[in-house]
């Protein structure tokens, strides 16, 4: 066996006219070229074939590093593995890793450009490109607004959705990738918002649930993280509102509306909600073109449930509507008609005490003039009052639900398309008779007193 290499041995090896090898043993050698290039080499024999495996050039590769490489190669040969093939395979693997890293970097750059160019506002303004796949929550929100909400929701509802998105959802989750939003993120977002504004948190939860349900159906998201959030955040659970006015309150409300300082349009609209049992937002958008004789047809684009609805107009209803053309309850503001918020404020502003009053989902400052001095109520409570009293006059549940335009649930809603016009006429006529009797009897009692 040759003498073991040292750094001094390697450094003192001089070039000759032809290459030569210094051998230490077990195949570990130093190859010296005429040019003076020195290379550590492993010389081995495997399957009756001789192999020369370069281990590194000296001095770039130190003696200690060469020994490590030699021992690794030596052990491979002992296991019957050709280190030359192994080296080739490792080089190929290294090239593969480098190619994948380059592709990943390119993908990240493309994704960053995709996010920068396709923001929520730009997608709303410029439209959704063909075959566009949203990557983030804000992109999903834009696609959902353009492709789902616009065709299916009223303009007023879309405005509410945009407000929730811009104020709450997008600042918290907008830049998150869809695949990264998990249930824990949804709960944390809703919990933090609910601590400040439970109503806003409830609306944001419903909106996000619809968006991710849409994404799941389109196979853009693998889960629906906003499902069943209410059980995890009890604070956003809706509270059952069972407020309806008894007979004495009906009379008091009717008289106070009549004598209030509100505009004639507002007074008539509030009373019409009670007489017709329809939603305040649908009543305030009533237009002469929707009325034919004694029937008012609420268009699908106005109806909350997106279903066209026919309402029978009693004598009292026709009297409240009057003979005006265009919008029945016009507004002097930017909208052509008054809003349901105006009705709520007209009722709420005159509670006896000052400070803040919550009416429905709205919070208002109450003034000092008392003319609705009773337990707080809202326009929606008038609709509930009418619906409650229909049972009192013998209107069956199925017909009463049609009067207030509630969709039938389950298989009944799929197959029963009958619209109950005759039954609705009878129901609303019976309700009008009861309402007028309540107002008349109370007036007679006061007169007798």
TrEMBL record:
Kindly indicate whether the keyword NADP belongs to this entry.
no
* Record SUPFAM superfamilies: DNA breaking-rejoining enzymes (SSF56349)
Look up keyword DNA-binding and say if it applies.
yes
Q: Which UniProt keywords apply?
A: DNA integration, DNA recombination, DNA-binding
What superkingdom heads the lineage? Bacteria
> Tyr recombinase domain location, by residue?
240-428
Task: Please report a single Pfam family linked to this protein.
Answer: Arm-DNA-bind_3
Membrane-spanning residues:
none
Family per UniProt?
A: Belongs to the 'phage' integrase family.
Q: What is this protein called?
A: Site-specific integrase
User: From which organism does this entry originate?
Assistant: Geomonas propionica
């Amino acid at each position: 066996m040759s003498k073991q290499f040292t750094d001094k041995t390697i450094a003192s090896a001089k070039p000759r006219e032809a290459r030569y090898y210094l051998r230490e043993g077990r195949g570990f050698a130093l190859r010296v070229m005429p040019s003076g290039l020195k290379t550590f080499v492993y010389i081995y024999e495997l399957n009756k074939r001789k192999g020369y495996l370069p281990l590194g050039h000296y001095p770039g590769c130190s003696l200690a590093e060469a020994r490590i490489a030699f021992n690794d190669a030596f052990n491979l040969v002992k296991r019957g593995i050709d280190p030359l093939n192994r080296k080739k395979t490792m080089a190929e693997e290294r090239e593969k890793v480098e190619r994948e890293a380059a592709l990943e970097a390119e993908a990240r750059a493309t994704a960053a450009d995709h996010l920068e160019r396709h923001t929520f506002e730009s997608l709303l303004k410029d439209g959704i490109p063909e075959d566009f796949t949203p990557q983030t929550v804000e992109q999903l929100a834009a696609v959902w607004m353009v492709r789902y909400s616009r065709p299916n929701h009223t303009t007023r509802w879309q405005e509410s959705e945009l407000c929730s998105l811009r104020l709450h959802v997008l600042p918290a989750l907008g830049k998150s990738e869809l695949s990264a939003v998990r249930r824990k993120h949804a709960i944390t977002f809703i919990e933090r918002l609910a601590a400040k504004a439970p109503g806003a948190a409830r609306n944001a939860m419903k909106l996000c649930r619809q968006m991710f349900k849409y994404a799941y159906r389109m196979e853009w998201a693998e889960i629906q993280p906003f499902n069943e959030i209410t059980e995890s955040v009890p604070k956003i659970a809706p509270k059952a509102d069972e407020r309806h006015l008894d007979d004495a309150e009906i009379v008091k409300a009717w008289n106070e509306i009549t004598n209030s300082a509100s505009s004639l349009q507002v007074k008539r609209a509030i009373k019409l909600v009670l007489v017709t049992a329809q939603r305040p937002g649908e009543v305030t958008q009533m237009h002469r073109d929707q009325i034919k004789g004694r029937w008012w047809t609420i268009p699908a684009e106005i109806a909350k449930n997106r279903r066209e609805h026919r309402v029978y107009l009693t004598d009292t209803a026709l009297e409240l509507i009057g003979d005006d053309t265009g919008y029945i309850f016009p507004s002097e503001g930017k909208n052509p008609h008054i809003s349901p918020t105006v009705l709520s404020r007209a009722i709420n502003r005159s509670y006896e005490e000052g400070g803040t009053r919550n009416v429905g989902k709205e919070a208002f400052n109450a003034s000092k003039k008392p003319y609705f001095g009773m337990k707080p109520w809202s326009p929606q409570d008038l609709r509930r009052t009418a619906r409650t009293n229909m049972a009192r006059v013998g209107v069956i549940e199925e017909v009463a639900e049609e009067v207030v335009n509630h969709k039938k649930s389950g298989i009944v809603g799929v197959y029963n398309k009958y619209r109950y016009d005759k039954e609705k006429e009878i129901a609303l006529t019976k309700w009008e008779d009861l309402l007028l009797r309540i107002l008349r009897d109370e007036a007679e009692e006061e007169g007798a007193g």
